[in-house]
């Protein structure tokens, strides 16, 4: 316990490793029959593993192997692994995996995933569930192989069970960690489809609707953004599940990081025309534009501008709309002014991104320009048909070319986050403190 408390200080983590603390803790984890001692040793290893230079030592000294074996030995007949020890073991593996791909691969190859799934589905202790979810999140972070191994062990279904047993906002760590895991698991199109079909989308939307914790809401919004990034299927699923309404309601809160995450999710969802129609039916464009114009956060202003840009059609579609005598709903809502504010405030001293320049150029297309181009196309069609009687003028009368799908506004990697299992000191009983005072 004393070593665990000492390891909480950043300056002691390296000293403990150099003094042989990792090897001694590993020996106790492997052989001590006392659950409280095993728990404190796991806590010490988890704390020491937060120091980056110690991460290779955790593998080299056998700490990762010992923690995996401890987790795998869990069961009703193993009294040396209680809930506290199991939670600390998960936290140790979580911190070993953070920022180290070699450790991620080692943990997965030691076969821990089936036990993680078993624990998620059968345990109710919130610290154990949060530790397991954080471990999944860190194993899947930026690594396609380990994410695939997690999915092959049905960890996404186990996370669904964990959330339902987590107790809502009374245990926010479980929900936040599970949402981070969903976001990290969705790191390619195949995995996105797999996670989206598991019920994760419905749980993410429900979390947005029911939680009041900003950290949980941010994690749920980033999960929606990650599952939908570049995935037409998941964008449609989220629209059907009510994600757009939920994100709009959450995005109006005062927490800037949470609002930015909601804007990221809306920006990717609005690249689906079906979802754009939902936005129109909710009559939310003007409200959203006002939110973007009034925000004082540069991050929210930039992310919100991405949503506005996603609602602007391609140039040919804009011209056709103008030729039909209609206007753009996002233009009527004041979207252009919001984008100009973004250009001036966020990119005042640097070049704006291509999507912002292109969107402002589309806003600048006038009705006169659209009508003149349509007239020129019609005249050209008549000339071509007059020269070739076999030419069908229907092929050239509209002049509208097929629109390509818009690219995403930000890299998928921006949505991934690693979890850190913060180590809390054990509560010292008053009698123990009095005894220590007498001894010293």
Automatic annotation (TrEMBL):
<dbReference type="InterPro" id="IPR000225">
    <property type="entry name" value="Armadillo"/>
</dbReference>
<dbReference type="InterPro" id="IPR011989">
    <property type="entry name" value="ARM-like"/>
</dbReference>
<dbReference type="InterPro" id="IPR016024">
    <property type="entry name" value="ARM-type_fold"/>
</dbReference>
<protein>
    <submittedName>
        <fullName>Uncharacterized protein</fullName>
    </submittedName>
</protein>
